Structures are given as C-alpha cells and as structure tokens.
Amino acid sequence: MKRIVFPALLLTALTGCMKEAALPTPQLPAATQTGQQTAGCRVDGQLWVPAGGGLFAPNPISVTLRRDGTRRHLSVLLDRNPATDDGLPNPNTLIQLYVPNVSGPGVFALDQPADPRLTNSNPAYAAFWYTAPSPDQLLITGPTATGQLTITRLDTVARVVAGTFQFRSREQAGPATVHVTDGRFDLTY
Questions:
Q1: CA distance 98 to 108
Q2: Residue 179 structural domain
Q3: In DSSP terms, which residues pair with 61 in a beta bridge?
Q4: Number of structural domains, the chain?
C-alpha cells in the first residue's frame, strides 16, 4: 500500500507546485498588407477576432473576388464561432463586407440600402449577424446606419486583399444596433 500511496502523493504535490501556463491575451491584429490571413475589430468597444469551430469546421475567414464580365465583386466573411470559450464576447457572430465593381484600392461608403440575399445588385455594405440562437439576427448598414470600408491593397497577381473598416449596423425590423470600429483585414484569396 505504501508503494502506491507515496508516489501518488508525490505526484499530487508536484503538480500543485507547477505554475499554470498563462494563455496569451487576445489582441487586435496589426493592420498589415502582406496576406497574413488576419482580421479583427472592436464590436461595441469589445475585441472581436474570427475563430473557428473545431477540427472539421469551415475556415473562419473567407474571401471571394468574383468576376462578372468586366466587374469584380469582393466579399469578405469573418466568422466568430469558437470551439471552446475563449473569453471574448460575441461568440456565434459573423461580419460580412461586400464591395461591387472593385478595381483596386479605394474608400467605399457603406450608406445605401442593401439585401445580402441578392448577389449582384447590391451597393457596398457591411453586415453583422448573430448566428445563435436561431434564427439568425441580421444588422446591416444603410442610410441610417453608415460606415466606411477602405481597401488599402488589392493585388490580383499575389491574390492579396487588405483594408480597414468601421460601421454602425442596424436591425432592419427592430431597434438593435452594433458599432464596429478599428476593423482590419489582411487576407489571401
């Protein structure tokens, strides 16, 4: 019995003395332009970064630059659906940025009525989605909830798109609003 109890007590004492590894404090990524696959912002003043839902979950960052004749449409989806609680607010949310007819770097106003269900007929817009609990709650930019998206790099050879954004979005059929600031992305597509 002593042969079993002593090693068990020793192991318990040693593990109690080890310091708990400190997790790195989440931060807003730097505003870079080299295709680092980073993005983030502040939502109502709180840090928000994309996070995936586990091993078989889709990538939390998705970029599409789609051609429609001579026009290019840019769509950026940033998903925050962490597999475990990372301590940050606003899990199960998604940010969508859309710019039609983009040809290079520039500043795009997010101030026109839009409907994300329509594909080619929308003006530039930003949307904030609460994806849980179901059904989804959509808050979108428009005439009474505006913003700005600045594309600082659009490189179709290196396939890199980078920029900054800020916006206020409003629920279309309700009073809810979200204020997104300090947004940045540096992505490959």
A1: 10
A2: 47-188
A3: 78
A4: 1
169-176 CB contacts, 8 Å cutoff, 24+ apart? 169/126, 169/127, 169/128, 169/139, 169/140, 169/141, 169/145, 170/139, 170/140, 170/141, 170/142, 170/144, 170/145, 171/137, 171/138, 171/139, 172/138, 172/140, 176/137, 176/139
Residue 56 has a pLDDT of: 72
Decide: 104 and 71 in contact? Cβ < 8 Å. no
> Does some domain include residue 73?
yes
The residue type at 9 = L
Whole-number pLDDT of residue 152: 98
What residue has token string 């597999």? 83
∠ CA 112-117-120 to the nearest 5 degrees? 65
CA angle 8, 11, 15 (to 5 degrees): 140
Amino acid at 60: P
Q: Answer whether residue 12 shows pLDDT above 90.
A: no
Q: What's the pLDDT at 15?
A: 47
The reply to whether 6 falls in a domain is no
Name residue 139's amino acid: L
User: Is 18 within the bounds of a domain?
Assistant: no
Q: How far apart are CA 127 and CA 131, in angstroms?
A: 12
pTM comes to: 0.83
